[in-house]
Amino acid sequence: MSAYKLVFISVAFLVILSVGCVKKDEKEIKIGVILPLTGDLADPGSKSINAIKLVIDGYNSSEPKMPIKLFVEDSKANPIDGVNAIHKLINVNNIKLIIGDITSGVILAIAPIAEKEHVVVLAPGASNPKVREAGDYIFRNWASDSFDGEVMAKYLTRGLGKKRAAVIYVNNEYGYGLANAFEKAFVESGGMVILKENYEQGSSDFRNILTKMRGANSDCVYLPGHPRENGILVRQLREMRINTTISANLSVETPDFYNLAKEAVDGVFFSTPAFDLRSNEQNIKKFIEDYQSKYGSEPDATAGHGYDAANIMLQAIRMADYDISKVKDQLYIIKDYPGVTGNTTFDDHGDVVKPVMIKKLNKDGSSIIIETYKP
Questions:
Q1: pTM, 2 dp
Q2: Mean pLDDT over residues 163-171, rounded?
Q3: Who has the most CB within 10 Å: 125, 244, 275, 282?
Q4: Domains and CATH numbers, the chain
Q5: Residues with Cβ < 8 Å from 357, sequence gap 6 or more?
């Protein structure tokens, strides 16, 4: 037998083996996860992955038609690390479905790559309005900042009668999106934004900004940022005895925020997606019980969105009859999915509109619901 024939037979044999491997792989669905698991946003990232694993573990334990394997990458809430993560998931792990990230900066960085490679991304966070235009393969089940910031602005002006606002925000896509949405709605509601300052993530001394704020004589301040910086901001604001109404975003309902701000949290208002630990709805009660049983702590809105995202992805996979190439189209036709963070319907941009709550913190870090705003 000639050398040419031997090479041809060898190559043909490898192709057959390769096809066999592909068919075997098709008996298992692979889902990538990109979340901040270290760094300043490790707490919400960890809660989100806990909830995602809760869903997937439950699915796999029921002896499904096709088991699911998760491939988890740490974005560190950094766009560069997020880009590295998605390249690894696509090129090394051959992933076509991704849940994550919770940060707008990471989602906006990975979206062009996902679009080019036809990879579905479902973000259980990433609230910047720009995400809405990120591409056909990009979805999120967290409401846009455009509504979140509007809700807080209207509550301060119409509910509390505030007219002069200061805005101090983290200098990234998340903080920028919330700050702009708040400013627009606050002005439209008859108020004035008399001070608008940003700071770099990782900052720890805000006294210069707070001194400017005191000089501006604002009657309220809005703090769209992350738990660590907002914890220090609120503590320093109280230490400087600046008498003003403090409002913020979801960041203040976290252990990291409370551990830094301590008793200074008392009376802080904040907006958050509609997730109620005291709800009597059976699906929410079951989620809370299952989460507490497995992880020994209570879930929060971030965990709730991770839980819903995983369940929605599963729903689309089932609707596609386990054909991964059809999952994107199935996500677009999901209507009123009954999640623990409210009903989810994706519009033609892969975006959602969901209720937002205004809550108020107590001295011990617990919170009470003040009002729920429905779109």
A1: 0.84
A2: 97
A3: 125
A4: 27-142+279-340 (3.40.50.2300), 146-273+357-373 (3.40.50.2300)
A5: 271, 272, 273, 274, 275, 276, 369, 370, 371, 372, 373
